[in-house]
Amino acid sequence: MTKFLSVFFYSIARLLHLTYRFRYVGIENLEKAESMSRSGGYLLGIWHQNLLSGILAQTGLKYVVIVSKNKDAEPVAFTCRTLGHVVVRGSSRKGNVDKGGLAAKEEMIEVLKSGIPGSVTVDGPKGPAKEVKKGIIDMAKKSGSPLVGYASIAKSYWEFNSWDKFRLPKPFSKIVIAYGEPIIVPEDLDYNEFSEVAKRHEKAINEAGEKALKSFEDWPNLSKKNYKSS
């Protein structure tokens, strides 16, 4: 049943992708992030609300992503793998019980060190919504990958009554992808300073979202090509 649901979810996602019209702004920030990186890659941070369009916007490229080990997340993991991404599985700690989150984080750090860029839903998997968790700060610090605020904003969408107010772009919707200014996380950053960097990254994601919204006004002049896409 899980396999069927995964294939069904992927098929629907691909059909929707064929109808979506993507445009990209701030691509120069990814070039800048790579030039500043100790690993050669970078780490995108996006709100869980825009997860689906954020994944589909990177079709044809290779990212490393963390997906929950929960069975409910298998369709997302299957879709990401089928699209060519590196999928690391792990869930957040529950009380004193580790659900594989620590091992997943360490595995992702190693992949990031190899130069493959990463993408993380920074408020997932269960919120609070639009609050950056400290895990991505630690990954950026240890891998040497700059943080980049990432927004995927649809012109028309359905919004669900979930913790993240999940948005499913409607067929044929215009979608603007925006990349924010990169943030370097020093190797010697103290844990007590993580909160400050998390707030900066939160601001960068929100600013990328605002930039994407404003960019609809200039739709005819926006780039149809993503960074390093053919």
Q: How does the SSE layout of this entry go?
A:
Elements: H1 2-19, E1 21-25, H2 27-36, E2 43-46, H3 51-56, E3 64-67, H4 74-82, E4 86-89, H5 101-113, E5 118-121, H6 135-143, E6 147-154, E7 157-159, E8 167-169, E9 174-179, H7 194-215
Parallel strand pairs: 1-9, 2-5, 2-6, 3-4, 3-5
Antiparallel strand pairs: 6-9, 7-8
Helix pairs in contact: 1-4, 5-6
What would your notes on this structure say?
By secondary structure, this protein is of the alpha/beta class. It has one domain (about 25-220). Helix content is about 40%, strand content about 20%. The protein has seven helices and nine strands; from the N terminus they run αβαβαβαβαβαββββα. The protein has helices at about 1-20, 25-35, 50-55, 75-80, 100-115, 135-145, 195-215; strands at about 20-25, 45, 65, 85-90, 120, 145-155, 155-160, 165-170, 175-180. The strands form two sheets. It has a seven-stranded mixed beta sheet with strand order 1-9-6-2-5-3-4, with helices on both faces. β3, α4 (about 75-80) and β4 (about 85-90) form a beta-alpha-beta unit. The longest helix has 22 residues, at about 195-215. It is globular.
Query: What ranges have pLDDT less than 50 throughout 5 or more consecutive residues?
Result: none
Element string (H = helix, E = strand): HEHEHEHEHEHEEEEH
Largest sheet, order of strands side by side?
Answer: 1-9-6-2-5-3-4
Name the average pLDDT. Answer: 94
Structural class: alpha/beta
Please describe the biggest sheet, giving its number of strands, its sense, and whether it closes into a barrel.
Answer: 7 strands, mixed
Round the Cα radius of gyration to an integer and report it: 17 Å
Compute the number of strand runs. Answer: 9
Q: Share of helix among residues? A: 25-40%
The end-to-end distance, rounded to whole angstroms, is 36 Å
Strand content: 15-25%
Query: Please, how many domains?
Result: 1
Instruction: Tell me the number of helical segments per DSSP (H or I, 4 or more residues long).
Output: 7
What is the 3D form?
globular
